[in-house]
């Protein structure tokens, strides 16, 4: 789904940026220009960024837990 029409940034683009290490919404804006033109998408983009960040942290926790359990 396109989040930012002005710069054609999708929810997948935001998820990719988070997976690649984007640590803050400000950094996301610098890297992708999302929510930097008209501003209409700011709240949605901000929410998606935080959802993706939280999902990534949960995934890291599960992977680390599985590695400890398996003895890796």
Total number of helices: 3
- In percent terms, what proportion of residues is strand? 5-15%
Amino-to-carboxy terminus distance: 38 Å
Structural class: mainly alpha
CATH topology: Arc Repressor Mutant, subunit A
Write up what this structure looks like.
- It is a single chain.
- The chain has 72 residues and is mainly alpha-helical.
- It has one domain: BFD-like [2Fe-2S]-binding domain (Arc Repressor Mutant, subunit A), CATH 1.10.10.
- Helices cover 64% and strands 7% of the residues.
- It is built from 3 helices and 2 strands, in the order ββααα.
- It has helices at 11-19, 25-32, 42-70; strands at residues 2-4, 9-10.
- The chain has a two-stranded antiparallel sheet.
- The termini are far apart.
Question: Helices, strands, pairings?
Answer:
Layout: E1 2-4, E2 9-10, H1 11-19, H2 25-32, H3 42-70
Antiparallel strand pairs: 1-2
Features:
3 helices, two-stranded antiparallel ribbon, disordered C terminus, 72 residues, Arc Repressor Mutant, subunit A, mainly alpha
In short:
By secondary structure, this protein is mainly alpha-helical. The chain has three helices and two strands.
């Amino acid at each position: 789904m396109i989040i930012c029409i002005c710069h054609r940034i999708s929810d997948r683009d935001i998820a990719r940026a988070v997976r690649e290490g984007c640590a803050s919404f400000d950094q996301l804006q610098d890297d992708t220009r999302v929510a930097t033109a008209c501003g209409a998408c700011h709240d949605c983009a901000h929410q998606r960024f935080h959802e993706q960040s939280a999902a990534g942290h949960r995934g890291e926790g599960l992977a680390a837990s599985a590695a400890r359990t398996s003895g890796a």
